[in-house]
Amino acid sequence: MARTERAFRTDAIILKRRDFNEADRLLTVFTPKHGKIDVIAKGARKPTSTKAGHVELFTRVDMLIHRGRDFGILSQAEMVEPFLALRDDLQRGAYASYAAELVDRFTGSEDEDQRHLYNLLDSTLQRLCEEDDLRLVIRYFEIHLLGLAGFQPELNECVIGREPVMPEDQYFSYVEGGVICVRHAVRTGQLIDLPMVTLKLLRHMQRSPFSKVRSLKVASNLHEDAERILLGYITFLLERRLESVDFIRRLRQET
């Protein structure tokens, strides 16, 4: 069996940070090859610390990490991409917090390759800095995160009868994880209405690169319906409400 390396250098996106002891910070970071790791940044709360400016939330950082018994120890840190707009704009920052919370909830602390999800998160943070339609960015992120996490919603055929769905309003089942056609809906409970226009949007986002999604002009009511389906499914899978969702909704009401 290959020996686990005691220290390694990696790119990392900072998902969470908490005060730890008197002068340290405990960071939850997401890496492409080692997955999610809890890392102690010793002395990072001191005004004179060389790490302090390099361990901001939702930034991409080059890190040298030593493995400890309970936590990794951050030996070196250099910020690579600050994603400044996420700190300068409250709404963009709120969506970044939501994306980070989703990654945190859908991943364990196993030492495993997560490069596809890492790349998705990294590109999503960049899009949240640049794009105008933030809801479209987040819906795209949600549907592709679900696929990478093993919960890809079935949107092309009925999950009961396995026949292709017809171009008409359908139903969605959180329990079954996908679309249920009108014919089979009579035998199944707890279904969610899924209008055809919403289904078309979700299917387009699921099968297309973001370059073909970003130009879409999505009406507000369609945005709300896509959010209803995806957020409802995510909440069902996690069996809990996400802390960042209520804050995003309050911001939306105020603006």
Fold and architecture overview:
This protein is α+β, with helices and mostly antiparallel strands and 255 residues long. It has 2 domains: 7-81, OB fold (Dihydrolipoamide Acetyltransferase, E2P) (Beta Barrel), CATH 2.40.50; 85-254, Recombination protein O, C-terminal domain (de novo design (two linked rop proteins), Up-down Bundle). It is built from 8 helices and 8 strands; from the N terminus they run βββββααααββαβααα. Helix 2 runs parallel beside helix 4 (134-148).
Q: Count of helices? A: 8
> Could you tell me the radius of gyration in angstroms?
20 Å
CATH architecture of the largest domain: Up-down Bundle
The CATH fourth-level homologous superfamily of the largest domain: Recombination protein O, C-terminal domain
**Poorly predicted regions:** none
CATH domain fold name of the largest domain = de novo design (two linked rop proteins)
Instruction: Kindly state the number of beta strands.
Output: 8
Q: What is the strand content? A: 15-25%
Which oligomeric state applies?
single chain
Terminus-to-terminus distance: 56 Å
**In CATH's first tier, which class of the largest domain applies?**
Mainly Alpha
> Mean of the pLDDT scores?
91
Shape assignment: elongated
What sequence of helices (H) and strands (E) makes up the elements? EEEEEHHHHEEHEHHH
- Work out the helicity level: 25-40%
